[in-house]
Amino acid sequence: MPRSISIRKKTYADLVITYFTDETYEMGNDQFDPRLLVKFTLDSNIDLDPLINILLSRGISGVVHDYSEDLQSQYLILKEPFNMLDFMAITNTLVQNREELISEHAAFRDGIRGMVQMMILIMIADKMKEEPLES
After folding, report:
1. What's the whole-model pTM score?
2. Domain locations in the chain?
3. pLDDT tens string 16-34
4. DSSP string for 4-32
5. What sign does the CA torsion over 52, 53, 55, 56 have?
6. Beta carbons of 119 and 75 less than 8 angstroms apart
7. Which ranges of the chain would DSSP assign to H, the alpha helix?
8. Residue 32 CB partners (closer than 8 Å, separation 6+)
């Protein structure tokens, strides 16, 4: 039963964030410090090409992007550190309605946390474009 619930959540989720490592390790080894990777799974209608191009232009080469077999979702995996990225500058470029969503004084965290914040903001901005407010 839990497995079907997990699949159902992924089917209806706007964004699924998965943290993982590709390093092998011994279970229970509290001395192991894994290289943390992040995978974002989201609707295939969201155009991630501008984000991918920005990441590549800033020297982030460990970017994997592909679509699910049914073309309903896509995923973006980031395989290398991105601590030096200016997430606010990237957001200003990618999110046209940024000022409607966050304060001009908003601050992004560094590394994976900042990337998660930015991806959530991209998702919210995209959802707001497709759902006009009723009068």
Report:
1. 0.81
2. 2-130
3. 999 998 888 888 888 888 8
4. HHHHHHHHH-SEEEEEE--S---TT-TT-
5. positive
6. no
7. 2-12, 49-57, 87-94, 98-101, 111-130
8. 25, 26
